[in-house]
Amino acid sequence: MGLAVAKSLAFKGWKVSIIDFSDAGEQVAAELGGIFFKVDVTAYEALGNAFAKTWEKYGRLDFVFANAGVVERDSFYAAQKSINGVPPRPDLTTLKIDLEGVVLTTYLAQHFFRQNKVSGGSLVMTASSGGIYPSPNVPLYTAAKHGVVGFMRATAELMFRKDNIRVNATCPGAVPTGLVSSGWDAFSQDLMTPLEKVVDVINMVIDDENMYGQAIEIIVDKHYFRGPPDWSDEKMKAVMRTTFTENPF
Questions:
Q1: Angle in degrees, CA 183, 187, 188, rounded to 5
Q2: Has 107 been annotated as catalytic?
Q3: Active-site residue flag, 197
Q4: Residues in contact with 126: Cβ distance below 8 Å, sequence separation at least 6, in sequence order
Q5: pLDDT digits (tens, 9 = 90+) for 14-44
Q6: Which candidate in 107, 145, 162, 212 is catalytic?
Q7: For 87-111, how does the pLDDT look when each residue is reduced to its tens digit (9 = 90+)?
Q8: What is the DSSP secondary-structure string of 175-212?
Q9: Which of the residues 44, 67, 108, 155 could staple to 2 if both were Cys, CB 3.0 to 4.6 A apart?
Q10: Considering the entire predicted model, what is its pTM?
Q11: Which 3 state secondary structure label does DSSP give 132?
């Protein structure tokens, strides 16, 4: 998904910087005339260096796509043998990459967007339909993607108000990418969302200078803007709106 977006932007004349844990993006970056960094998005210093080198080369930052993601391979529900009466620690890699990686990317993007001659930029986080609906077979992935949607909603208003940074999230359904090595066959072809549709939605977000705080559900050839839950009552609305004030406590 990230490479498809990079190709789309480069085709329109953008200069691109590709960050990936694998070497897959190196050749693409070279073909697009861009730069490549092999980085684990949970490694803050390495990720920060990639941002700094990108800024050093281009002198500006207009768009960041926080797209890194994995899904858990082991069942959360599997019975485990205990060690000294306690089961082994679960593998939380999915939470680290899918949520912590987005948080770190957002933190760095905010810093460099502020360095532009005029503060501002566009950040799109990749969430998932699993960030809106429960996906019981992958509960850690579901938790991370719900976290991404919540993090986007929590940051969007203040970042736009303070620094003209537009934060949004995409929530696609089943898209044939490398997220899973197998399993796509379980989905009927008429339920698959083409990669091109996701790219089109991201380009729409980039082009709309007034769009922020949107969770955009994408399914097959359609997309929907999914707002936060309705307030239960006016008192709860007043409580939560208080937290929209910077440093309210």
A1: 145
A2: no
A3: no
A4: 1, 65, 66, 67, 68, 69, 102, 148, 169, 170, 172
A5: 999 999 998 888 999 999 999 999 999 999 9
A6: 145
A7: 999 999 999 999 999 999 999 999 9
A8: --STT-SS-GGGS-GGGPPPHHHHHHHHHHHHH-TT--
A9: 67
A10: 0.93
A11: coil
